Amino acid sequence: GTGAHLTTRLAVVSTSSTHVMPAIMTAAAAAPAVTAVARPNGRSGESSSKRVTAAPARRARGASSLRKAVKDPSEIVAGVDPALFTETDLTSAQMQDLASRRPVGNFQSRFGENEPRKGADILVEALEREGVDCVFAYPGGASMEIHQSLTKSATGVRNVLCRHEQGEVFAAEGYAKCTGKVGVCIATSGPGATNLVTGLADALLDSVPLVAITGQVPRRMIGTDAFQETPTVEITRQITKHNYLVMNVEDIPRVVREAFFLASSGRPGPVLIDIPKDVQQQMSIPFWGPKVSLNGYLSRLPSPPTSPQMQQVLDMIKRSKRPVVYAGGGCLDAAPELKEFVDATGIPTTTTLMGLGAYPASDEKCLDMLGMHGAVYANYAIDSADLLLAFGVRFDDRVTGKLDAFAARASIVHIDIDPAEIGKNKEAHCAVFSNIKPALKVLNGLIKADQTADSLPDFSEWRAEIEAQREKFPFTYADTSDYIVPQYAVELLCEMTEGKAIVSTGVGQHQMWAAQHYKFEEPRNWLTSGGLGSMGFGLPAAIGAVAARPDCVVVDVDGDGSFVMNIQELATLHAENLPVKMFVLNNQHLGMVVQWEDRFYGANRGHTYLGSPDVEYHETKDEKDIFPDFVAIAEGFRVPAERVVRKEDLRPAIQRMLDHDGPYLLDVMFPHQEHVLPMVPGGGTFKDTITTGDGRTPELKDMKTL
């Protein structure tokens, strides 16, 4: 058929029960000549063609009679923030009207009102009307029409030409993570589209707003195994929030508006638009006023929480003696409200890897990161708590370890914008389907209004108990006089950038050391691949960040294994003159896997050595034996670089890197025997925490089997 039917598995959160009950809803998306596959509010392990775990509403949203009406949509604003839809009660008609509005009003097109133009020109103008100022695109046969149109952009949309499609999708993620805006990447058909796959999966797991546009072979050739043809929609169905195959040029304006709205609203995520080449070439006069066709999706966005719901949360806080806030990536856009709540209640707060910066690290109530490589005192607080306030989190296995033992003594309040997460891994005693920002606003309002003498308990004794654990088990490392330890290197970088840099990372030991020892005071300065754990993320993400926020210092704290995976993007730095600072922690090994080998496999090396097979630097200590030579490689890409081996040389080397006006690579050598501590073995509990030993002399008691 010409329309796509979206079969959605709804998890309906009952206000009178803590359980999540399955139900089935079918919504028709009337979209002529457009194939659409949707995951309205998040992701699911089930096929989109069967069932999609998506946005259950606490109450029906389809009937306008059940919604508190705003007098006039114009009272809100034109080109509205998608967050408005979860922070304000709107009628269904108002929701559709507001979702259909493009961010840029009174747009001045380079074409006459009734002048025909190519589909590619319509696409680029649609991006301009969305306020897009930068894209990350690599041309090919099926997408070159789009690139031709980009060169004529009326608003001067910039294309940062990354040297690999994986680089461009990671760069678009970096752009989105550091701004909260939708990142845009464009690739050609076939291998160009398949090279985006890892980034799309990464964006879905980390809830990153992203629109990926791919060229496709002409419509008549689809399904013929044509040159550079792949079924992009089918390939990406499981790793996108929604995707489209555009078969009619007239649908481009509506599809682009829907894609940006879907990517940025509800639980953010990636949306893909696949456009055949002949559609890009087809002449048409665009109509910019069509309404979005998202009634089912809009009806399932959460309403702001009610006061009685949040009063239940406040009552649980009043009854508790040892509460802890467990804040995740869902809190990044609610940092002021979270700070107000913690200041008012005095409740200690720990953040996930994705939530770093949502609460300022310098605050005495901040317990830093929790989880597998989190602070002992943060994990102690979770283990000892009688109330766990889970805000914008998904109870990931790297946080919880053994689920049954995680927060086993605590009542759990879980507030999340994606109902699929509520009860998925850990049952909540009080579940609230809501965006975090309005939920905390209501909760803070209730706290202010409650002026009774015993309105809130004094949690100072509980905080002191946790502080004793912080003093006993701080993030620590060896104080060396000659060689560099990576923890010290990251701390020094934090000191010299005053904790204000935007920091991206790859995945591995260096990622955990950066999370532990770089102290973030603000949200959206920490860019990392959390859920998927994609090596090679750091450099492209830094490119996206520096393109989005050129006035900020952007540092890619990377490992030698991760860095080499997208090393071709050094060319992008030179060609685009992007002042990314690369701080490569180099131990010539795949460090995190080596650590597991040391701890659990008797230090037997299973292909984790990344240096030259004929000579090993960690044995000879001769710099000429370092392999690969990142300094020489960087210079081949016309990027200044230097290497530092001794501790005494590190500070001046960092200063030269920061002072340089342009990209700069600093290769920091350290011993491969260093381990990330503390460590809770996978599937373990707080009692299994490892705090001692390394690859030189791992203690027998640490050599546990999995």
Q: How do you describe this structure in short?
A:
With 706 residues, this protein is an alpha/beta fold.
Number of helices: 26
Give the class from helix and strand content and strand pairing.
alpha/beta
C-alpha Rg, in Å? Answer: 26 Å
Main beta sheet, described?
7 strands, mixed
> What is the molecular shape?
globular
Helix content: 25-40%
Strand fraction? 15-25%
Numbering strands along the chain, what is their spatial order in the largest sheet? 3-9-10-8-7-5-6
Total number of β-strand segments?
23
**Mean pLDDT, as a whole number?**
89
End-to-end gap: 51 Å
Low-confidence stretches: 1-77
Report on this structure.
It is built from 26 helices and 23 strands. The protein is α/β, with parallel strands linked by helices. The termini are far apart.
